[in-house]
Amino acid sequence: MIRIVFPEQENGIIKAATKEAREKFEDFEPIFVNSLEEACEKVKNKEADALVGGIDYTSRDVILSARDIIGKKDETFSASFVLEKDDSVYVLGDAAACKNPTEDQLFDITLQTYKTAKAVLKTEPKVAMLSFSTLGSGGSDPSIMRIRNVVNRIHEKYPEIAIDGELQLDAAIDKTIGDKKAPGSTVAGQANVLIAPDLNTGNILYKAMERFGGFVAAGPILQGFNAPLSDLSRGSSKEDVLKVIEIELKLARLNAA
């Protein structure tokens, strides 16, 4: 069984989502506690495999408790969202944690989000590094150089990862535009993993996809910690929580393998 701890047992959305999840996932076992600190201790002591919190706590509360009690696996920590609508599924990072990433932090965020995507996507991840520019169309800018350096480092160290950038959003996800703006790219027009250049961009983009685009946004999925963790948006619906539980189960199964 995969044990997921919830620090907000009295929340009606959590109650409804965990009840439905018990019926849907045979290996799901919820654990309910009375505080975020107690939930983190359960994970630290291996009494729970994952944590889902945040619907009644701020992101700062969840992230700092996780950092101080559960601990970090990587120097950088970040957060991604899984966005679904009909047959379209995207993984977007970072949308909730790292405000103005350095090149090294952006490198870590990209790899962390790729690993999350490997766990949750049914197809191979194709990573687009988002920008206002597509492969030089925006001229020279520090944010563009940071992206290009990250892409080059990943190509050198992890040649198996399909990644390209810098790419504008339309060039990243629309095949016709991708072919026109970035001919020959193996990612342009086909991206299913989107890496934002900073937190402003990532947070605005996920909320726009959710509110204007009708996507179900599952997350934030916290990355870089010693266990699978999620920091729910305080506006999460029951469907959002169910999707997060499904994702955390997948990540916990991989951890246990």
The span between the termini is 13 Å
Helix content: 40-55%
Task: Return the CATH architecture of the largest domain.
Answer: 3-Layer(aba) Sandwich
> Globular, elongated, flat, extended or rod-shaped: what is the shape?
globular
* Count of alpha/pi helices: 9
Rg for CA atoms: 18 Å
Q: How many extended strands? A: 10
CATH topology of the largest domain: Rossmann fold
Structural class: alpha/beta
Number of domains: 2
Which stretches of 5+ consecutive residues score pLDDT under 50?
A: none
- What is the CATH homology-level superfamily of the largest domain? Isocitrate/Isopropylmalate dehydrogenase-like
Which percent range describes the beta-strand content? 15-25%
Strand count, sense and barrel status of the largest sheet are:
10 strands, mixed
CATH class of the largest domain: Alpha Beta
The average pLDDT value, as a whole number, equals 93
Strand order of the largest sheet: 2-1-3-10-9-4-5-8-6-7
Helix/strand order, N-terminal first: EHEHEHEEHEHEHHEHEEH
